Amino acid sequence: MSDDASAEPQGRRLVLVTGAGRSGTSTIAGALHFLGLHVPLPVIKPNESNPMGFFESTWPVKFHRRLLERAFVEQTDGRPLAQELAAAVVDDVVRDELRTWLADVALVEPQVVVKDPRSIWVPWLWKETAGELGYDVGYLTMLRHPAEVLGSRSTYYRENRPGITDFQFTVMNLCGWINGNLVVERQTRSDRRVVLGYHDLVEDWRACLARTRDTLGLTFDDDLQPGHHHQVDDFIDPGLRRHEPSWDEWDVPRDLVEVAQEVFDQMTRLSETDGHDPAAEAALDAVGERYAVVMRDAEAIAHDAIRSFSKSMTARATAGHEARLAEQAAELEQAHARVRELEAQAGQGAWSRFYAGMKRRLGARRATRQAG
Predict the structure, then answer these.
(1) Distance CA 78, CA 179 (A)
(2) What is the pLDDT of residues 36-77, one digit of tens each?
């Protein structure tokens, strides 16, 4: 952790809530809201997947969506290159949009919470831009076991991906969880940050929020001492822990399981400190390199499979096209033959009528001569 990250913050505070989707980001953002921090309105409305509310301001969500669409990056993107792609589309226009919104927000409250899992791709953009407006930015990363996240995402988001198999959906989400945590950890390593375990928050929110307050230099409207009821007690329900963390039910490649478990273990070590641990950070670098190799190999295999499939489909399409052309040519020849037949029949009929007419005229002339 750098000296800058450990210094006492001055001026406005902005807490950027990050972490993989379905990791408890809404829960911590809601808790901060009920403790007196400002969540800019309007916000995303509650739904079945988050009946207590997302506490997610709509403007940052739309802002990140536009950014990721330009970069061709998914919210849950397992490619190690995704972070670079997102950074590459950040220009002066993007910075001006963010600066304008933050300037308006700064007129309302001195302590602001911005929560959107998509922010894992550009946390540095928020720090740089908010810093220009006098904000001290702190990062709060929520951590939930990947097997539990898979269960949650399968429950609420599986139907949004009808074109892939259950296995592909699971692998996609696991890779996104791994990459997202590696990316946000690496990008916030020199900054003031807190990593909170989801289960720790559900079981003892006061202890978690006290550490958040002290690390990020926040001011709450409650002293967080036990023995009295607070609105957060009603908001954080231990029943929110709907999925038990276990790999047993998941059919996923062993390499990815090992990588994901190592990422979780090392991020857990960060959650037990002030967000910084040299040994854990070194271990995360190492597992990040391993993940990059796994993805490189998988992409090569996928490329070969896609190439073979493409060639096969092209050959089938070509053969089918040629067969259809031959069939159409035969049908056309049959049509031409029928036309010729009809033309011949039409010609014979015309000649017969002409011959019959000539016979009638000749007969009439003969009859006329005989009568004369």
Answers:
(1) 5
(2) 999 999 999 988 887 888 999 999 999 999 999 999 999 999
Is residue 38 within 8 A of residue 13, CB to CB? The reply is no
What is the rounded distance in angstroms from the CA atom of residue 58 to the CA atom of residue 42?
Answer: 6
Which tens digit of pLDDT belongs to each residue from 183-210? 999 999 999 999 999 999 999 999 999 9
Give the pLDDT band of residue 339 (cuts 50, 70, 90).
Answer: confident
Break the chain into its structural domains and give their ranges. Answer: 10-276
Compute the CA torsion angle 32, 36, 40, 43 (nearest 10 deg): 60
CATH architecture of 10-276: 3-Layer(aba) Sandwich (3.40)
281, amino acid identity: E
Is residue 149 within 8 A of residue 258, CB to CB? The reply is no
Residue 182: CB atoms within 10 A of its CB come to 23
Predicted TM-score (pTM) of the model is 0.79
Residue 269 backbone zone (phi > 0: left; psi -120 to 50: alpha; other: beta): alpha
- The two tokens of residue 103 are 């300037």
